Amino acid sequence: MKAKMLFISTYVPYPPIGGAYQRTYNLLLRASRDYDIYFVGFEKNKEDCKNIDKLKEFCKEAISFRLPEDWSRFSMLKQLIFNIFSIKPFTVCKYYKKDVVKAVQRLVNDKKISILHIDMIDLADYRHDVEAVKTILTHHNVESILYFRISEHASNLFTKAFWYIQYLKMLHFERKMCSRFTGNACVSEIDREAFSAIAPGASFRVVPNGVDTDYFHPNMEESSKKDIIFVGSLDWPANLDAINYFRSSIWPELKKLNLSIRLKVIGKGRDNRFPHDIGSSGIEYLGFVDDIRPHVWSSLAFIVPLRIGGGTRLKILDAMALGIPVISTSIGCEGIDVSDGHNIVIADTARDFALGIKRLSEDSKLRNILSQKGRELVTSKYSWQIIYNELKGLYDHGNPTF
After folding, report:
1. pTM for the whole thing?
2. Axis crossing angle, helix 143-153 with helix 237-245, rounded to the nearest 10
């Protein structure tokens, strides 16, 4: 008989497009072969009430809830105002709801849950509502560090102050909650070291991000490659900052080098809107696409000019699996086992980033080396089955010393 697991996520991870969705879906699918999964998630768009049915194909039960704050600006504003008086981060208050507590308690009592997997620190308060033999908390990022970086790069004092306060609240919350789980999964050794300093009494295990190396595969067809490409949801502050940084700082450096090149940007904007001028000066905004592979295959290089971030970027693993050279900032490729000039190009100033793009455009030998070594890296270290085996060790062994 399989052990019964309650898996709680901040979203419905279908379709598995985008970093966090890919991770959650692929690990959930593999876990369902070894455990009876009962899934609880939150709806981010109107399709999710139907997308949840896809999880029912391999989960014993899957239910989703709609958060007022994600659908109503008034509700969002009210929650933000109330959060001024709370010691907990805004996102933690936002996700903890009475109707969800009732559903969670029903599943625990009726199904005799023995493993609780909470898929993000924002949901950690549900730990109080579940008596389980094993409790696992996944950290996609070190959220407190991410909030601090957003504050650092904020464009105005109000936004800077908001994110700094959220950073302090999240730091306190992480310190308190991590030790209340029998095991914590984080996505990189860098994150593990950071969490060990934040919550030294808690147990942490590295369960890296991964990639579907069958779906994301190289394309052997020859094509004229003159574009560079950026992929990432533009309703996320880190990605939006990266594009604005590219436009304001890297793009002028490319112009100085007389490099004739275009940037393609793929990713949905907030409410599917984005400033119209992104299409100016050789930058083409494609919005959301169902399949990024043809666009990436036809590109000269995959760019990751992130200045804000945490965890690891699955987009880099996807690009490497597709056989496309990657140029990134150090923060962008943080936590991935890469080496500058061997399987990636790393550039931390606008000038160096532009020079890196120029070098890739002119050096076919370097492009081929990066493509080959990048693909070798993901197939040997970052396939989802390898990653799942790490997570299963956390499920099976309870509270080991990491």
Report:
1. 0.79
2. 40
